[in-house]
Specification:
Number of helices: 7
Shape: globular
Helix content: 40-55%
Largest sheet: 6 strands, mixed
Number of strands: 6
Order of helices and strands: HEEHEHEEHHEHH
Radius of gyration: 16 Å
Amino acid sequence: FCLSRGLGDVYKRQVKQARLAIKNHIGDATVAYLRIMQKEIRLYPYSANATNRFMYELLNLRPDPMVVALDRTKNNLAISMESLPDLQADYLVLSSGYGASSAGSTETAEKRYEELREDPLWQTLPAVRENHLLEVDSVIWNAHGLIAKELAIANLKDWLGGQP
């Protein structure tokens, strides 16, 4: 019991430090998480996705309005290329692929992302124009364990917290 309590305190301290560093660096800028998959680009609702919940609730990041609007449906949204410019997030976290057991699909998703980067519609996104993109490891970001969340928080703190 004492060991797990101590680990919980460490985690809470890491979260608080990350939250403060990020807020001090980006203020109220918006952040969205996009997952590039083999055949689609997904944007996830505010509260129905574990990754978004930790970003928005635990770290107090501000979601893009399109993310908030999705919360009503509680579904993952496959974004068409035509609707992609509606995503006006200041910062984008990008995951191309799937979890650890889907290596072949991940390679296809990564190729899809390469193609997407060349598309003129992709270039219209504010985060793309400002080079505010964080490409993350899909294995870590799609996992649900504490260690994966600690690694994801470290990714965000290093990127959005103004760390070198």
